[in-house]
Amino acid sequence: MNEANKQTRNRRAVGYWHFMREFVRNPRQIGAICPSSPFLARRMASLVPAGDGVVVELGPGGGAVTAALLSHGVLARDLVLVERSAALSAHLAKRFPGVRLIQGDAMHLSRFDALQRQPVRAIVSSLPLRSLPRAVVRQILEQVGLVSGPGTVFIQFSYALRGSRQGMAPGFERDQAHLVWRNLPPARIEAFRFRAGSMQ
């Protein structure tokens, strides 16, 4: 095994350890029994459109999707991570030093300066929207709508294999959906696109 592969495995192991520690502390907030698989992460990253604007990742956890986004071609300077956990934020800061990191809550997206300076190209979410309280989900989705503009893509995964309007932020319409069987458990990815003139 070469040195680059060893470093990749070590980063994954550290990310997994941080993920499991946070899961034990607060399983409802984490909402998953395992970190996202590389297959799920790559599929989510592939749905991010090319172009100008920042890509926002909500709930990056140990960084599996973050790594996939960077590998997919999203520039580090265009990527903004929003992570609530202090421990996971510290891990992400070390693993991805060139990426902008906000330790904060997705319920307050429109307050973050980094999301007010440039258009948002895509929002990639690993948040457990189906297990969070409805009032929290409603506020998060409202914030997604507030920081979005025409053409913004909102990408969300869940372990429910049937679609639901619960994951639809105001101003968005469902664009496409994909099932990823090579994940534990299997996951469904839905992509929504912001419609011009749909938000007042």
What's the arrangement of secondary structure elements?
Layout: H1 3-25, H2 27-30, H3 38-46, E1 54-58, H4 64-72, E2 79-83, H5 86-95, E3 100-103, E4 120-125, H6 134-147, E5 153-158, E6 172-180, E7 187-194
Helix pairs in contact: 1-5, 3-4
The CATH class: Alpha Beta
Give the terminus-to-terminus CA distance: 55 Å
Assigned CATH superfamily: Vaccinia Virus protein VP39
In helices, the fraction of residues equals 25-40%
Mean pLDDT: 85
Helix and strand composition category: alpha/beta
CATH level-two architecture: 3-Layer(aba) Sandwich
- Silhouette: globular
Number of strands: 7
Instruction: Indicate the proportion of strand residues.
Output: 15-25%
Spell out the helices and strands N to C.
HHHEHEHEEHEEE
Largest sheet: 7 strands, mixed
Strand order in the sheet with the most strands? 3-2-1-4-5-7-6
Separate helix tally: 6
CATH topology (level 3) name:
Rossmann fold
Runs with pLDDT <50, length 5+? 16-20
Count of the separate structural domains: 1
Over the alpha carbons, how many angstroms does the gyration radius reach?
16 Å
